[in-house]
UniProtKB/TrEMBL annotation, chain A:
Keywords: Cell membrane, Membrane, Transmembrane, Transmembrane helix
Protein name: Amino acid/amide ABC transporter membrane protein 2 (HAAT family)
Gene Ontology CC entries for this record: plasma membrane
Domain of life from the UniProt record: Bacteria
From TrEMBL, chain B:
Principal location class: membrane
Family annotation (PANTHER family): ABC TRANSPORTER ATP-BINDING PROTEIN (PTHR11795:SF442), BRANCHED-CHAIN AMINO ACID TRANSPORT SYSTEM PERMEASE PROTEIN LIVH (PTHR11795)
Topology relative to the membrane: Multi-pass membrane protein
UniProt keywords, alphabetically: Amino-acid transport, Cell membrane, Membrane, Transmembrane, Transmembrane helix, Transport
The name this protein goes by in its record: Amino acid/amide ABC transporter membrane protein 1 (HAAT family)
Ranges that cross the membrane: 12-32, 61-84, 96-121, 141-161, 182-203, 223-250, 262-279
Species assigned in the record: Bradyrhizobium macuxiense
Length: 343, 289
């Protein structure tokens, strides 16, 4: 029984809040007051961070490589848009959850397709589902508005109290609160025994099955949860920008998302959030240098990251913050280098 | 009846084109187990090389086609030697990220150099129009594609089955370690095969400019088609991808002609169903490694 208690003390120790984590969230909140003129881009970052968090759940923790995560983002975006447009659910928070649930249902249904097969089949199936949904959205343009997208969405005040203003202040705080809430949930999930079993599956599915982990059921559960997160991210997109168009399903969105997560690192939840900040800043930078051809630089970043090696880059990036944190909080508090991927 | 046959012929031509475009990928992805999403970029390179030679330098079309092959093959081997070979043993995630990065770079670079609009290659007059064969209208250009691609397929099959290089490649794919032990220079075989596949893609790109359309977004638009050919066709031989390409070509042309509203819906559904039914492809075998 000592092994069991060892595992639980270890799990509890790693689940404890670290100073660096608290600092991260304080910093995030501080940004809201430091840059009041930049709410729109910060909302964009928060949304992207949430979306990347969703991919991290399946890629970083369960090891499922997905090229079509935009499918759930798009479903969430269109659900939220349609709910608001037809006045079915006027209250944004309830609509947000409803849109997330729609995406979760889709995630649950498609998870059975995804858990079959190896990496390559998964890539193809996830990509295929996203393309399929894009084709569907284009086909039923009387519902989705086709290439023009949903138009004339008007958002009601949040909880009946806070109206969306044109500077995006409400939208930003709304998104940040949603992100934080969902982050807490994700943090709880990945540090739970369930989350530990996911890591076991990622490292070696056969061995995980041999020690009694129901591999398929766990994968279905986390895939559904990730779909829920992605749906919420999509719904936030619609609610804060008041539009939803076909490009929510685009392949580029899924590919960008991978880049975001890879910049930040997989498997420690903050990767997506940090990656979102860095990605948006890079995008702004490249767009200011070469407005039309920033895609080239994004591609170059991807190639360089892979060639240098993801783990090595993260060690370099985390070197300075860790040095500072160690000064204040001793050796143990350092931010861990994310686990390397086994595939 | 005649229109059905014409459509069928168009589908076959389209499928054969897809085969030439994708069979290089069948080797890298199917045999070498490298997820190369950037395969379309080599096809695009071939297409643009051909377009520049024909439209700007005034080369005859048939002289530019081999140059498209050579140009793409050279680009392919340069990238293989400098970048790709470091990634053979890396995780699929790394390979996906790397090749997406390459696609993005190629899209933006071509957009910068050549402009974003669709490029047309001036065809010789002999290839334009249709000929009437027993009441069935057959496009001359498509007929040429069927002939060229059919010959290429035969040549490939012969090279793989009969030549010394073919047996080395099959050995290297079946069991790289044993092949190295037998004195086969596996990296060299792979590099050569990679370059050859890129060259074929380039040739396919040059041929497809007329049918599929050539613009900077070519690699992204047709990525899924190439992947379908390889994953559905499996990798045990080149006949698998060949039949998968024909199937895909005919289904796509027929789908666009008879149920235009469903669009690409049919193809993706069929792909997902086939992958669920046979995860290793229709003609597949279990992966060697």
């Amino acid at each position: 029984m000592s092994a069991l208690s060892d595992v639980s003390t270890h799990a509890m120790a790693s689940a404890r809040w670290r100073i660096s984590e608290v600092a991260f969230w304080v910093l995030a909140l501080a940004c809201a007051f430091l840059f009041p003129s930049r709410y729109l881009i910060m909302t964009d970052i928060v949304r992207l961070g949430l979306f990347a968090l969703s991919l991290d759940l399946i890629l970083g923790y369960a090891g499922i490589v997905s090229l079509g995560h935009a499918a759930f983002f798009g479903v969430g975006a269109y659900s939220a848009g349609l709910l608001a447009l037809h006045g079915i659910i006027n209250e944004p928070v309830i609509a947000l959850v409803a849109a997330g649930l729609v995406a979760a249902v889709l995630g649950f249904l498609t998870s059975f397709l995804v858990i079959r097969g190896v990496d390559l089949t998964r890539l193809m199936v996830t990509l295929g589902i996203a393309l399929l949904l894009e084709a569907l959205a284009e086909r039923f343009s009387d519902i989705t508005g086709g290439t023009d997208g949903l138009q004339g969405i008007e958002m009601q005040p949040i909880l009946g109290l806070f109206t969306f203003d044109m500077f995006g202040k409400t939208g930003f705080f709304y998104s940040l609160i949603v992100l934080f809430t969902l982050f807490l949930l994700a943090r709880r999930v990945v540090h739970s025994p369930f989350g530990l079993s996911l890591r076991a599956i990622k490292n070696n599915p056969l061995r995980a099955a041999a020690i009694g982990v129901p591999v398929n059921r766990r994968l279905i559960a986390i895939y559904t949860l990730a779909a829920f997160y992605a749906g919420i991210a999509g719904a936030l997109f619609t609610q804060t920008t008041a539009l939803a168009s076909l490009d929510v399903f685009a392949f580029e969105r899924s590919a960008d998302l991978m880049l975001v997560l890879v910049i930040g690192g997989t498997g420690y939840l903050y990767g997506g959030l940090i990656g979102a900040v860095v990605f948006k800043m890079l995008q702004e930078l490249f767009q200011s240098i070469t407005p039309q051809y920033w895609l080239f630089w994004i591609g170059l970043v991807l190639v360089v990251i892979v060639m240098v090696g993801r783990a090595r880059i993260h060690r370099w990036v985390l070197f300075v913050p860790n040095l500072i944190i160690r000064q204040f909080a001793g050796r143990k508090a350092a931010v861990a280098v994310p686990e390397s991927d086994v595939s | 009846m005649a229109s059905i046959l014409t459509n069928l012929f168009d589908g076959v031509a389209y499928g054969m084109l897809l085969f030439v475009l994708a069979c290089g990928l069948a080797v890298t992805l199917g045999l070498m187990n490298f997820v190369n999403l950037a395969h379309g970029a080599f096809a695009m390179a071939g297409g643009y090389i051909c377009a520049v030679l024909v439209n700007q330098s005034g080369w005859p079309f048939f002289a530019a086609l081999p140059l498209a092959f050579v140009g793409s093959a050279v680009i392919g081997i340069a990238l293989e030697r400098t970048l790709y070979r470091h990634l053979y043993s890396r995780s699929h995630l790394d390979q996906v990220l790397f090749s997406i990065g390459l696609v993005f770079m190629s899209v933006a670079a071509v957009d910068y150099i050549m402009g974003s609009s669709r490029v047309f290659i001036k065809l010789p007059a002999a290839l334009e129009g249709q000929i009437d064969l027993f009441g069935v209208g057959i496009g001359r250009y498509r007929l040429m594609i069927v002939v060229i691609c059919g010959l290429l397929t035969l040549a490939l099959q012969l090279i793989l089955a009969k030549t010394r290089f073919g047996s080395r490649l099959r050995a290297a794919v079946d069991d790289p370690r044993a092949a190295i032990g037998l004195g086969i220079n596996v990296p060299q075989v792979f590099a050569f095969t990679f370059a050859f596949g890129c060259g074929l893609a380039g040739l396919g790109g040059a041929l497809s400019a007329e049918i599929l359309g050539l613009d900077p977004y070519f690699p992204l638009k047709f990525m899924i088609y190439f992947l379908i050919v390889v994953t559905v066709g499996g990798s045990s031989s080149i006949t698998g991808p060949f039949f998968a390409s024909l199937l895909l070509g005919i289904a796509d042309v027929a789908g666009k002609y008879y149920v235009p509203k469903l669009g690409p819906f049919v193809i993706y559904t069929v792909m997902i169903v086939i992958l669920l039914w046979r995860p290793n492809g229709l003609f597949g075998r279990t992966a060697a490694r």
